[in-house]
Design goal:
With 223 residues, the chain is of the alpha+beta class. Helix content is 21%, strand content 34%. It is elongated, with a radius of gyration of 20 Å. The mean pLDDT is 96.
C-alpha cells in the first residue's frame, strides 16, 4: 500500500482534525495524483501548506471521475460537498476540470510527524512508497505480553543495523538495538509499561521515527 501526503490550507486541515471534513477532494485539469493512485487502506498524511503535518488517516473509499463536464462537476458538488466542506467558489473555479478524486477518510488522528519527501513547486499531493511511513504499529502477541518483550518483524535491515534510542511515554529514554539482527528489541523493560497501560494481546506498540535513529514509543489499545 502507498503512503500519501496531501497539502491543505490550514482551515481545511483543521476541519479534517475536527471530524467535520471527512472527504478530501481534488479536481484536476489532467490525469495526475491523486487520480488513479489511491487505494482503499492507503495511509494519508495531512500537511498544512507551508506548515507542519497535523493529521494521519486511512482511505476508507476512493472514487475517481474522468471526462467530467461542467454540469457533471456541479453534480459532484451536490453529492460530495457536505463531506468536502468547500465554499461555492471552490467548485465554481474548478467546473472546467474533467478529472476528480474523492477520498473518504477514516481513523483520523493528530500527528506532528510525517513522511520525508522532496517538495515540488505547486504540487499539493505526493505518492510515496510504504516504507516512507514514519509510524510503525507493532501488535503484541500473548507471548510478548507474558514474557515482556517487543518484536518488530517489519523492521528493515537498516533499522536493525545499529543502536537506536526509544523515547518512552513517561519521558525516559532507552538506548537499545535488535538481538542478533533479528526482530526482537534487546531492551526488556517493557513489563512495567505493559502493566501500567493494561496492555493485552492484540494491543499495539507504536514506534514513530523522529530522525537520527530516535523513535517515540506510544501504546494503543485494540479498538
Amino acid at each position: 500500500m502507498a503512503v500519501h501526503v496531501a497539502i491543505l490550507r490550514r482551515e481545511y486541515a483543521a476541519m479534517v482534525l475536527s471530524g467535520r471534513k471527512t472527504v478530501e477532494s481534488r479536481l484536476m485539469k489532467v490525469r495526475c495524483p491523486p487520480f488513479g493512485v489511491v487505494n482503499v487502506g492507503d495511509r494519508l498524511y495531512v500537511k498544512v501548506s507551508g506548515g507542519p503535518f497535523v493529521a494521519r488517516a486511512t482511505a476508507a473509499s476512493v472514487h475517481d471521475y474522468a471526462d467530467q463536464t461542467p454540469e457533471q462537476v456541479d453534480a459532484l458538488r451536490e453529492r460530495w460537498n457536505p463531506a468536502v466542506c468547500g465554499p461555492r467558489a471552490y467548485w465554481d473555479e474548478r467546473r472546467d476540470r474533467p478529472f476528480a478524486t474523492m477520498v473518504r477518510l477514516m481513523g483520523v488522528e493528530p500527528t506532528d510527524v510525517g513522511p520525508r519527501f522532496a517538495p515540488r513547486h505547486m504540487r499539493a499531493w505526493y505518492v510515496l512508497d510504504d516504507t516512507a511511513d514514519p509510524v510503525m504499529d507493532v501488535p503484541l502477541t500473548r507471548g510478548a505480553v507474558r514474557n515482556r518483550y517487543v518484536s518488530v518483524p517489519t523492521a528493515s535491515a537498516a533499522m536493525r543495523g545499529a543502536a537506536l534510542t526509544l523515547e518512552l511515554p513517561d519521558g525516559a529514554e532507552v538506548e537499545t538495538g535488535f538481538v542478533d539482527g533479528g526482530p526482537m528489541l534487546r531492551w526488556r523493560g517493557w513489563g512495567a509499561y505493559f502493566e501500567a497501560n493494561g496492555l493485552r494481546a492484540g494491543d499495539l506498540v507504536r514506534l514513530v521515527a523522529l530522525g537520527g535513529r530516535r523513535y517515540r514509543v506510544r501504546f494503543r489499545r485494540k479498538g
